[in-house]
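cache lookup: miss for this entity combination. No prior model stored, computing from scratch. Input as submitted by user K.M.:
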Amino acid sequence: MNFRDEIFNLIKKIPVGKVATYGAIARALSKPGAARAVGNALNKNRDFVKIPCHRIVRSDGIAGGYVLREKKKTEKLRREGVRIEKGKIVDFEKYIYKF
DNA sequence: ATTATGACCGAAG
DNA sequence: GCTTCGGCCATAA
């Protein structure tokens, strides 16, 4: 089980309409501070079917990076019911998925 | 082993 | 509200 797979197994459980921060993922894997590494791992993987990588956002409420640009990412989130204004998520806490 | 890179984070100006 | 900076960690070269 490598780092990438750990992340996949974790985030593929995130339900529609919910999101998680890179930092949260890192902590859930008992590796606090590895937020950056998480994003790096997601960047390499692009299995859109199995992995909903668009549900992973930054701690400040901004969508963050994405293979197809941040714009597409926020669109997908909106489509799932997440309200976003000025590029930031409204009522951030409300959408956070806790592990 | 050393260096560089990136979908990050938090604090500081 | 914004930009900068230092620190963080897994990968690739």
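stored under new cache key. Residues 21-23, 26, 33-43, 53, 56-60, 63-67, 70, 73 of chain A lie near DNA strand B (CB under 10 Å from a C1').
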